[in-house]
Amino acid sequence: MLAVEILHEEVEPIAESLQDLIIRCLQKAAAKEEVSGEVVVTLVNNERIHELNRDYRGVDRPTDVLSFAMNEEGEGEMEIFIDESEIDEYPNMLGDIIISLPKTREQAEEYGHSFERELGFLAVHGFLHLLGYDHGTEAEEKEMFSRQEEVLQEIGLTR
After folding, report:
1. In tens digits, what is the pLDDT along the chain, a chain of 159 residues?
2. Distances (CA, A) of 110 to 21, 99, 105, 114, 115
3. Total structural domains in the chain?
4. Does 80 map to a domain?
5. pLDDT at residue 77, rounded to an integer
6. What is the extent of the structural domain holding 11?
7. Cβ-based neighbour number of residue 48 at 10 Å
8. DSSP H helices in the chain
9. How many whole angstroms from its chain centre is CA 89?
10. DSSP-assigned letter for residue 21
11. pTM of this prediction?
12. Is residue 127 part of a domain?
């Protein structure tokens, strides 16, 4: 099972139904990918995501979604020794997903689908990045986007 915490930073809280939608999308994606753990989703404004995009990716503009994986290999890994009997007490923290609500609204309008569809898409997209999926090549993009679409279809978020 995937535990999801939703935070609001510099934006008004979204409706509980939208928060539930994010959780459903992420839990469906986690089930399909056969992973469990914890994810934090932070909803922000364009100014905040612009700052994060600039500071962490070197891209000086707002974006729609950012992912910060906790389990990326080779980035300052630390070996932690845990007694096998205690392993279930330590959750698998997958990482953080940051979503710009203004960008979500803009893109939903631009692509001609609902805010809910775009929000679900961005949540699943960010989640798959946490798991190591990318869209740098045509083949990677095809695989990642087909996985996203499967999840969204099963949730009922069609275009």
Report:
1. 999 999 999 999 999 999 999 999 999 999 999 999 999 999 999 999 999 999 999 999 999 999 999 875 434 344 444 455 554 555 689 999 999 999 999 999 999 999 999 999 999 999 999 999 999 999 999 999 999 999 999 999 987
2. 21, 17, 9, 10, 11
3. 1
4. no
5. 40
6. 2-71+89-155
7. 17
8. 16-33, 46-57, 101-111, 115-130, 138-155
9. 24
10. H
11. 0.88
12. yes
Q: Is 81 part of a structural domain of the chain?
A: no
Q: How many Cβ atoms are within 10 Å of 112's Cβ, its own excluded? A: 8
Q: Establish if 64 belongs to a structural domain.
A: yes
CATH assignment of the domain containing 120: 3.40.390.30
pLDDT, residue 61, reads 96
Burial class (CB in 10 A: 0-12, 13-18, 19+), 110: exposed
Summarize the annotated binding site as residue ranges: 125, 129, 135
Residue with tokens 């809910």: 116
Place of tokens 């914890």: 38
CA dihedral 126, 28, 132, 8 (to 10 degrees): 30
The annotated binding site for Zn(2+) is made up of: 125, 129, 135
Other beta carbons within 10 angstroms of residue 32's beta carbon come to: 13
Q: Which among 25, 28, 33 is positioned nearest to 65, based on CA atoms?
A: 25
